[in-house]
Automatic annotation (TrEMBL):
Organism name: Phenylobacterium conjunctum
Sequence similarity: Belongs to the class-IV pyridoxal-phosphate-dependent aminotransferase family.
Alphabetical keyword list: Amino-acid biosynthesis, Branched-chain amino acid biosynthesis
Lineage: Bacteria, Pseudomonadati, Pseudomonadota, Alphaproteobacteria, Caulobacterales
SUPFAM superfamilies hit by this protein: P-loop containing nucleoside triphosphate hydrolases
Name of protein: Sulfotransferase family protein
Classification via Gene3D superfamilies: P-loop containing nucleotide triphosphate hydrolases
Superkingdom of the organism of origin: Bacteria
Keyword Zinc assigned: no
Length: 253
């Protein structure tokens, strides 16, 4: 059996990462996996996340076992294996050589918007929690490996024009765009992480990409959250320069 096309989509929290997973899962040729390193990350850091015990019980906490699963055959022998990853789960010292077997892409969102949403779910937030700096490091590593920038897509750009953005993303990943990616049935999936009740209420009600939120005004952040947003902004803007479909995408990494 031929190896699958493995797509590693690297995002931080409170983006449209789960809707993107829905979109790819609605393709007939694609299997998906939801944040496979989450339990290993919680076990290593000791962080107290919502449904921590359930997460730890639901996945392997052995990094090497997770990597073996991700680099093996796709579930049900699917031709495309879409992997939804959170950048903050890739702790320093974790072997990243397996990512060379994937087509890596980066889903970005303005850090101030991320913080406004994430802080509503968790009372205390750190810069590391939102994964923007780690996303920048992973981007630079992949750009060095490829010799050019890997695909970068802004969540808001997808919401503004899903067919255009997804067509561009699929082309950059070397797969055909499938119109089935534009809509999906509402409800929970067996492939959703066990943590879905704590985080996925909106996407469970969705049947496609919703309209972009009104972002005319910057979100109101506390002084501490604003400091985090300011610290994350250089990494975000570095990736944003390579957004698919924009003239700035011609910049060199």
């Amino acid at each position: 059996m031929s190896p699958p096309v493995r797509i590693a989509m690297w995002s931080g929290p409170r983006n449209i990462s789960t809707a993107m997973m829905r979109s790819f899962e609605n393709r007939a040729d694609t299997a998906v996996v939801d944040e496979p390193f989450y339990a290993a990350y919680l076990a290593a850091t000791g962080l107290d996340h919502p449904m921590r015990d359930e997460v730890l019980a639901s996945q392997s906490t052995d990094w090497s076992q997770v990597i073996a699963d991700l680099t093996g055959q796709a579930p049900d022998g699917a031709a495309v294996f879409y992997q939804k990853h959170m950048t903050q789960h890739m702790l320093p010292g974790v072997d990243l050589s397996w990512t060379a077997q994937c087509r890596n892409a980066f889903l970005i969102r303005d850090p101030a918007r991320v913080l406004a949403s994430y802080s509503a779910k968790r009372g205390e937030v750190t810069l590391a929690d939102i994964g923007v700096e780690r996303q920048g490091e992973l981007f630079e590593r992949e750009a060095d490996r490829l010799g050019h920038a890997p695909p970068v897509i802004e969540g808001r750009d997808i919401l503004i024009d899903p067919p255009r953005a997804l067509t561009a993303l699929c082309a950059a990943l070397g797969i055909a765009f499938d119109p089935a990616m534009l809509a999906w049935p509402a409800g929970r999936r067996d492939t959703d992480g066990v943590w879905a009740p704590a985080w996925y209420d909106a996407v469970e009600r969705s049947t496609g990409f919703g309209p972009p939120p009104d972002e005319a005004a910057p979100p109101a952040l506390s002084d501490e959250l604003q400091r985090i947003a300011d610290a994350a902004r250089p990494s975000y803007e570095r990736l944003a320069a390579f957004r698919i479909g924009l003239s700035s995408g011609s910049a060199q990494p």
